[in-house]
Amino acid sequence: ELQMCVFADSLVTVSHTGRELGEFAITIQLKQYCQEDCFLVYANSHGMIDDIPCGTSIMAYISMKLETLEQHHHEYVKANKRTRLTSIKFTTYSHSIICTKTLASLQEKKKQSFSFEWSSLEGFVSEAANLLILRVLARRGAVPENMVFLSFDTETRIATSTYKELGQWSQTIGNEMVEMYGIERTVQSEHDDEVPTTWQCAFLCDGHMATRVQVGSPITMKMLQLPVPVEPELLFFFNIIYTVEEAAAKPTFEKKSLNWEEDLQLYSRYLDRKEELKANHATYIRHHPELKALLSDFLQFLLLRKPHDIPTFAAEYFAPFASQSPPGPSFRS
After folding, report:
1. Across the strands, what pairs with 62?
2. Between residues 250 and 173, which one has the greater pLDDT?
3. Which residues, in sequence order, are bridge partners of residue 27?
4. What range(s) does the Ciliogenesis-associated TTC17-interacting protein N-terminal domain occupy (predicted)?
5. What does DSSP say about strands 109-117 and 176-189: parallel, antiparallel, or unpaired?
6. Residues of 148-185 as b/e, b for ≥16 C-beta within 10 angstroms?
7. 74 and 56 in contact (C-beta within 8 Å)?
8. What gap in Å lies between CA 24 and CA 11, rounded to an integer?
9. Residue 71 above 50 pLDDT?
10. Residue 48: which of 90, 7, 89, 76 has the closest Cα?
11. Is the model more confident about 325 or about 21?
């Protein structure tokens, strides 16, 4: 059933007035992680909420038993020309899950690490694994009673994740009337100060997501065009490598201008590189204390003379230090 869920979804984000605000996409592929067959789940959404650019991306490796081997979760909000980035990475080991949470902006960067023992996470389902579960339930057209897993809340604390059936109905997509199957998922934190978060999703019979809305949110994600029905043909090579033969041609997407500040991975790499350069420069300055003395002498001399042509003054000041220049008197001017 999981292998039948290997396909891509593409939705648009619209306001209650029908205005398009952004995009939402989910892609699930068959991959390998540390020589283990698994699913690569990638979900990305970006757009505007109350005229504020924001976005979320999830990239994870999920085992055939729905265990999360590794997950990267990024969120950004750009308000008042300032971007705030939240990055959460957790990796599964034999006895625990190690989490690293980073809160970053152009002004500061905070990082904290913590872990959860497997004994406290029996029945844990990550956000990426949840996307696989929803597709399976949609293809079945049924949600088991009392379906409860463990999950993380918005503060990366243990919470319960419950699923509920919303029934079936007909809806028009494009020019066609299609059958929908609804599923509601609620994440309830164990802390009383955390408000439950609920999503309501509608699916086609083959598992494609047609609509998605977070209860209380002013935006809705919905499908504008019906996808080509694809039933993947699974081919087994030595019972190890799985490949998928798609019946439809790959869709073409127009090129879009890249804004690196809104791209979660590029912005995260920028902040990491910035911290790396700052640390490297600080180490160099500590190892060469003569640099501060040299610059201090130059600035003092500059402020005493106050020349109009600073580049020429600097060139004459530092000329005696050049190894290839002919010897001459210092401070000729």
Report:
1. 39, 68
2. 173
3. 8, 42
4. 1-218
5. unpaired
6. ebbbbbeebeebbbbbebeeeeeeebeeeebebbbbeb
7. yes
8. 5
9. yes
10. 76
11. 21
